[in-house]
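Researcher: I'm preparing a figure for a lab meeting and need a structural model of a single chain. I don't have an experimental structure, so a prediction will have to do for now. The sequence is pasted below. Please return the structure as tokens so I can convert it later.
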Amino acid sequence: MRYVGRLTLEGSVCGKPQAASSLHTYHVFVRVATSLASKPLSYNLQANCLQYKQGLSEIREECQELVLSDGQVLEIMKRLLTELNRGLSKATHDTADVKCFTTFVQDLPNGTEKGKFLALDLGGTNFRVLIIELGGEHHFDMKSKIYAIPQKIMLGSGKQLFDHIAECLANFMIEHDLSSERLPLGFTFSFPLSQRGLTKGYLVQWTKGFDCSDCINEDVVQMLKDAIARRNDIQLDVVALLNDAVGTLVACAVRSYNCRVGLIVGTGSNACYVEKVENVELFEGDKPKPYMVINTEWGAFGDNGALEIVRTQYDREIDSHSINAGKQLHEKMISGMYMGELVRLVLVKFTKSNLLFGGKGSDMLFERGTFFTKFVSEIESDKRGTFTGCRQVLDELGLSHATDQDCVNVRYVCECVSRRAAHLVSAGVATLINKMGQLSVTVGVDGSVYRFHPYFHDLMVEKISELVTPGIKFDLMLSEDGSGRGAALVAAVACRDR
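Model: Understood. Here is the structure written out token by token.
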């Protein structure tokens, strides 16, 4: 940024003040340097500023709808809090978009857990099987393997899905000489569930590209047990059912006693938090323990129109072409399943408006699903003023004719989309932190967007700091081993408390 400051009077670009950490920082000096030797500095600066203004001003104006104002963020927090309370209330739970399901997880690991525990972590196009051996005092040994779920199974029957999972479980146990043992298993199932107990949960709806038949309103633990029984070659005790957000919270709670929020920003987006049991009206059992982990299922926030103040034409197009139109609208503005496609839709519009690539696109650019979310991270990972990652992406999309100005503009679009996602997540996390009222809170985080985007963590820290109640301290902790380890730990706690 200091190069821009030297050329343009105290950090202004073409007369527009720019903060060093601003999303909109652009490096004019790259273009100025190319002809500096042949023309006077003032001439080059004028010419390049004119080009800069022409190339960027319309892009910035068109992207403005992707930039959330402070007022909009505060209004989103207010509306989310209303929906959280509606989800917790017995009178309004059925009509609430943010369901706030009880998880029946009331105890966290204390380091005394011992034994072997299996974990199954299902939440996307891949799932993971783990074996964890706990030795007490937070000692553990873990082995795991990732298995793919073909799309034909994701869109097939529930029986096909759970038979595939059971087959992979059996193969894992044989591979690790565990088939003769009867082991407890923690099952992470990262789709909206209505739980009736720690080992009983009914699927509310599929998300993240799944649409298996004969599963809605069915007990997924029983479906897993039935699939295992059909094989007759392994024996397991399913002792805990949870989702990835709860698994992340539990895994991080081993490292930080103050961990009270579990957050997922990956293929999907969700959060859980620790609530006072007196506020959990749907929990009808004995209440000797003061707290309960609540699975918010905040991906559905906005399904009733609460997010219309910030949804754009691109969000509506994403939704209209999804397999669950009208649902999970909050998730569709944030998660890795949709972020790349959001960027692509913006680039397509700007290309057709002659604002990008000289109005000349490519077949791949105009094809749905070709701009992967990983491209956003790769483009934003370029050092300012360089375009190595951006050009690799554009070349892959058949856009090798892109100019440096196009690269600048493409990065700006990526930044707008990812920054909006980070601010929406931050608004949600700050709402949960403020609701709990704890003076110090650790947020356990997992998910590919948070892990691999170069600035997502920093954007969140900056925004949450602005939004939490003064005096509250927080930190974001990356979950080292994902939600699978959390599933095994919940299973261990369940066995410990028997």
